[in-house]
Design brief:
Elements lengths: L15 E3 L15 E10 L13 E8 L3 H11 L20 E10 L11 E9 L5 H11 L2 E6 L4 E8 L3 H19 L5 E9 L4 H17 L1
Antiparallel strand pairs: 1-6, 2-3, 2-4, 5-7, 5-8, 6-7
Length: 222
């Protein structure tokens, strides 16, 4: 039996952790004038469904607006059209009598993590970023999130972060925003996650490294 107090095993040969280099940090625009609006709703029969079908319906919008209220109003006018992500729900109306709960969250893009302290999630995955920018990416994620790790082997680049957020969708959106803004700042045409998994709760750096190793094993087996 493995003692839970024992440190995690060292990564296998050929797997390298990228150390954040403070002098490689990238200045990213703060997102002023752009808001992310997330609309989520739960139907009355949610708990009667299969356990894998109990996630709330979620629509997400990225909008240029002068105020958060203007962004909210615009998203409601457009609902459900033009959302960046949404479930396959035929009857997408907010005035349905079977809605048990409705949540509308408006956030300025790039909102500092310290403003969202409380609930936290951890995300591990693979990311498509040129190797020459890995030190900059590690520094950027480390400066943006509560904790972050970037590592790579001969084939792929992996990451894990702890994100302060109220939901999985918000945490994943914060991560994608951070990667996209980083790519724009360093002049990369495209940078995005090629797969990820998330869970509730914060993880420190050592725990994030373990999350990467576990994700990497699943990624290689897929």
């Amino acid at each position: 039996m493995i003692d839970p107090a024992d440190p995690p095993p060292l990564p296998e040969a050929g797997f390298t952790v990228v150390e954040p280099q403070r002098d490689r940090e990238v200045t990213v625009p703060d997102g002023a004038g752009t808001f992310r609006v997330c609309i989520r709703f739960w139907e009355d029969d949610l708990l009667q469904r299969d356990e894998f079908d109990q996630a709330p319906g979620t629509w997400m919008y990225y909008l240029a607006a002068a105020t958060a209220d203007e962004a909210r109003a615009t998203a409601l006018e457009r609902f459900p059209d033009a959302a960046t992500s949404h479930p396959d729900v035929e009857d997408a109306r907010l005035d349905r009598p079977d809605l048990a709960r409705l949540s509308i969250d408006v956030q300025r893009v790039g909102l500092p993590q310290r403003m969202k302290a409380g609930a936290a999630f951890h995300i591990a995955g693979a990311v498509d970023v040129p190797r020459e920018h890995l030190a900059e990416l590690a520094a950027h994620l480390d400066a943006t999130f509560e904790a972050a790790v970037v590592a790579h082997d001969a084939q792929s680049v992996f990451f894990a972060v702890t994100v302060n957020a109220e939901s999985h969708e918000e945490a994943e959106a914060d991560l994608e925003d951070a990667i996209h803004s980083f790519a724009n700042a360093v002049g990369i045409d495209e940078a995005s996650t090629t797969g990820s998994s998330s869970g509730a709760g914060a993880r420190d750096v050592d725990e994030l490294l373990t999350e990467i190793e576990e994700y990497r094993s699943r990624y290689r087996a897929a």
